Amino acid sequence: MPSIRKETIIDRPPEQVWDAVRDVGAFHLRLVPGYTQNTLLDGNERTLILPNGDAVRELIVSVDDESRRMVFAVKEGRLPLVHHNASFQVLPHGDRGSIFVWVTDFLPETLSADIQAQTDRVSAVIKHTIENAN
């Protein structure tokens, strides 16, 4: 099974980055404004509404404040996934920064290039959004 790991340095304290990541109902506001238009929560299920009207349904598996780690799985989306499981984790970096770690395991392997491109693009949006938050 392919696994993609993306580490992004964010010039903000881990507490600030984690506060945005753990707010699973505000994904469209706090992490990826413009990339995702809205976020709907129904229990542990999250639906991301994309600007073109498409939706991605996810299961929020875990939000662990102690390890600053959030785990989710795509149940239905724009890509023909057979399996998807991912985690966001926030680690300290230096005196005031953070490392945002995104790990995604998925099938089929033929989606590797698409998922790598999406991970790179979305990580850059997350970094920009958090570093420019008030």
Key words describing this protein structure:
single chain; 134 residues; alpha+beta; Alpha-D-Glucose-1,6-Bisphosphate, Chain A, domain 4; 3 helices; 25% helix; SRPBCC family protein; START-like_dom_sf; Polyketide_cyclase/dehydratase
Could you characterize the architecture of this molecule?
With 134 residues, the protein is of the alpha+beta class. It has a domain of 92 residues: Alpha-D-Glucose-1,6-Bisphosphate, Chain A, domain 4 (2-Layer Sandwich), CATH 3.30.530. It is built from three helices and seven strands, in the order E-H-H-E-E-E-E-E-E-H. A seven-stranded antiparallel sheet has the order 1-7-6-5-4-3-2. The radius of gyration is 14 Å and the shape is globular. It is 25% helix and 43% strand. The model has no long low-confidence stretch (mean pLDDT 97).
Tell me the series of helices and strands, N- to C-terminal.
EHHEEEEEEH
CATH fold type of the domain at 3-22 and 60-131 = Alpha-D-Glucose-1,6-Bisphosphate, Chain A, domain 4
Percent in helix? 10-25%
Which percent band covers the strand fraction?
Answer: 35-45%
Give the tally of β-strands: 7
CATH class of the domain at 3-22 and 60-131: Alpha Beta
Rounded average pLDDT: 97
**Unreliable parts:** none
Strand order of the largest sheet: 1-7-6-5-4-3-2
Sheet with the most strands? 7 strands, antiparallel
The CATH architecture of the domain at 3-22 and 60-131 is 2-Layer Sandwich
What gyration radius follows from the Cα positions, in whole Å? 14 Å
Termini separation comes to 40 Å
Instruction: Say which CATH homologous superfamily of the domain at 3-22 and 60-131 is assigned.
Output: START domain
User: Could you say which overall geometry the principal axes of the C-alpha atoms support?
Assistant: globular
Structural class: alpha+beta
Please give the count of helices: 3
Protein name: SRPBCC family protein
Pfam family, one: Polyketide_cyc2
